Amino acid sequence: MDLAWASLALICYFLSSAGFAAERAGLWRRWKTVAQLLLAAGALLQVIEFAKGALQTGNLPVTNFPQSLSFLACLTALAGLLVITRLRMTVVGTVVSPIVFVVLGIALLMMGPRRLTLPATLRSAWLPVHVTLAFLGYALFVLAAGVSLVYLTYERRLKAKTLSLEDGGPAPSLEKLDRVNYHLLGWGFLMLTLAIATGAIWADATWGHFWSWEPQESWSLLIWLLYAALLESRLTIGWRGRRAAALTIILFSVLVGSFVGVSLVTPGKHGGNFG
Amino acid sequence: MKRQKLLIFGLNHQTAPVAVRERLAYAENEIVPALIRLKQQARSLTEVALLSTCNRVEIIGVGTDSRRAAEESAAFLATDRGVQAAAFKTALYHLEERAAASHLFRVSASLDSMVVGEAQILGQVKAAYAYAAEAGTAGLVLHRAFHKAFSVAKQVRRATLIGHGAVSLSSTAVSLAGKIFDSLADKTVLLLGAGRMAELTARALKRIGIEALLISSRTFDHAVALARELGGTAVPYDNFRPHLRMADIIIGSMAVSQPVFGPAEFEVVIKERRYRPVFLIDLGVPRNFDERLNSLENVYLYDVDDLGRMALESRDEREREARRAEPLIELEVDSFMRWLEELELVPAIKDIRSSIEELRTGELQRHRAWLASLAPEERARIELITRSLVNKLLHRVLSGLRESHDAGAEGPYAAAIARRLLCSDFALEKENAREILEAGDPEPPAAPHDERFESSATRERK
Residue B397, CB half-sphere, CA atoms under 13 Å: how many? Predict the structure, then answer.
């Protein structure tokens, strides 16, 4: 796999992170726009790479762990851009850019420059649908965690009475951060649900059974249940704000643990060993 | 007869850049000697004080010839500071009479400051007055003008809340509300206590979109009046608790000795609200809300000190509030100008004449029974004798007054002294004394009750 595009994307993400950080530090207001453009450029470069890979293999080239990470970085960057521009929440960039930089960086370190091949069992129209839904769900959870982190930071400053009123004029309010967090969780949950459903249908079509209790499936189900509980707690008890943000971050770390653990420790069909 | 005028020559942050101001500025320890030099060089000024801060250098004086005084003041500043007069001449303002009084009052009340409402200026004006008293260059008019200025500053602070930082407090509270809540249109504000500060904050919140406003005050009429004015709903004070759960922003400004509610009680409210955030703004001193409330989930409590620490410079609001002070200033300028006019000879002579004439008719009145028993020509004779006595006495007093008016340092105030001695009407005096006592200057350099003679008294003490 040609890594040139991805490497360029990595550089873009790095510069974007630096730009957002500089903007936060109040060095230069224009960094905001530059950082956003760099993030967009990085995402675009990744899209080009995936398009190239898709043309090469005839399907979505997401079959092993590094590729998954790279794909996750790309989707997170795209979804992050949407949040930053549509909801005018520049501060989210401060979290998103470094995350995608780190994720793509790890992916590139693990990625060998080998030719892309796709196992015969995966050559299916279900692959892009299932994988995209699953990673879009993860990307949204990444963003939700990022937004929660911003929430907790702002909240702590507001409680401690150290929040600066001058800096970042249109900085989002706690209420908005909380609402965006909720929406991201809701959409992420929907994506995860659909991913599990499509996965089950695909498995049934390929192997003849919906569910085989392999590690990724079990963990996905557990995570699905946890996120369901998180959303439910908001709707019924009214847990929001600080508690919701903290739980979002805790759940996200569970998600990261399961994703890394399943992929590297007990790989099943999802870990790149397909049989 | 020449008229004593209050005069101000100076420049400030609006007329001169700091590069010019700093060259003319005086350090505190330079002021007394400078005043003595100024008094020697500017012969047309009978009294003089020097106000030098980082924002202004002003010569505040008293004299009859304002043009000569202006020239002498400018020349003094140029030679004394070694600055070319051309360098600051255009920045210099000349104010006299009403304009000067108004300016002095506005400066003291911090209405002319770069940051309207800042607290230091009054202290600086007081110092300028103390130096003038120390140098012996402050006389009757300046004593009066400065004391009036202190009292005006105090009144302005009380009436408008500038200087308490209240104006910036309310805008800080509003900015903080914007950090907590995204949209204020669907939020409810509850005012506990309908004080001026709470009103100001509520108004500011209204301006940025708050719709629902509940007002509860121990005096229900206040709540109703304010509710009508701001478009809110008045809630009887003994019934505000059920409304707590509806309120997203609660502003407390009541005079209480105990917090209105504590964390245990409010925790229930929070659960009922399903943890929707609450912004508690405590404008009360003593505080209305228990400070432990801030540690409750999604509750943000800010008291006056917290807000003061974060206060933004919100110039528009300060200036809007400052305009409320203008009628007050006008009123005090009127009163000061009336007093100044009374220093002149003409009204004094009139007063003295009518006062003595009053004495004469009073005496005749006292003896009217006996007078009635006299023959008409005898009565006419007595009338004539008393009249002539009064005229002779008056003539002597008035000619002496006229002579002394044009001579000597205390001359211009001879009328006031004579009036004080000869007029029975002390109502004016009493009023003056009361005002000065109210101004409450903790260390008045001169005894307030003896104001009209304190210039000589001050000198004797030195």
Answer: 24
Of B271, B225, B269, residue with least CA distance to B247? B269
Distance CA B424, CA A153 (A): 74
* A179/B176 touch (CB, cutoff 8 Å), yes or no: no
Handedness of CA A161, A164, A169, A173 (dihedral sign): negative
Asked whether B243 and B192 are in contact (CB, 8 A), the reply is no
**pLDDT single digits (tens) B181-191:** 988 888 999 99
B423 noted as active-site residue: no
Distance CA A148, CA B298 (A): 14
| Contact between residue A111 and residue A65 where contact means Cβ atoms under 8 Å apart | no
Phi, psi of B191 (to 5 degrees): -100, 120
Q: What is the CA radius of gyration of chain B?
A: 30
d(CA A234, CA B68): 80
pLDDT higher for A88 or B315? Answer: A88
Rounded Cα gap, residues B372 and B287, in angstroms? 75
- Report the amino acid identity of residue A163: L
Whether residue A240 and residue B300 make contact (CB cut-off 8 A), yes or no, is: no
Which secondary structure element, helix H or strand E, spans residue A90, and what is its range?
helix A90-110
Q: Look up residue B289 and give its DSSP letter.
A: B
**Preferred mutation among B245, B281, B298 to probe A, highest tally of A CBs within 10 A:** B298
Q: How is residue B169 written in tokens?
A: 């407090």
For residue B286, whether the previous peptide bond is cis, meaning omega lies within 30 degrees of 0, is: yes
Cα B347 to Cα A34: distance, rounded to the nearest angstrom: 77
Neighbours of B338 (CB within 10 A): 11
The lowest-confidence range among A234-248, A256-270, B40-54 is A256-270
Rounded distance between C-alpha atoms, residue B331 and residue B435, angstroms: 14
The question of ipTM being above 0.90 is answered as no
Which DSSP state fits B373? T
With b meaning 16 or more CB within 10 Å and e meaning fewer, what string describes B218-235?
eebebbbebbeebebebb
Instruction: Tell me the sheet residues that pair with B215.
Output: B191, B234
Model confidence, pTM? 0.62
A158 token code pair: 């507001």
Taking residues A135-156, report their average pLDDT.
93
The span from the CA of B201 to the CA of B180, in Å, is 16
Specify the range with the lowest mean pLDDT, choosing from A77-91, A212-226, B45-59, B305-319: B305-319
CA distances from B91 to A12, A88, B88, B123, B434 (A): 55, 47, 5, 25, 39
Q: Which amino acid is at B162?
A: I
Where exactly are the structural domains of chain A?
Answer: 1-113, 121-268
DSSP string, A150-173: HHHHHHHHHHHT---SSSSTTPPP
**Residue B191 forms contact with A (CB below 8 Å):** no
In chain B, which residue's Cα lies nearest the Cα of A244?
B275
Of A154, A134, A146, the closest CA to residue A99 belongs to A146
Structure tokens at A137: 């769900």
Residue position matching structure tokens 């015969």: A120
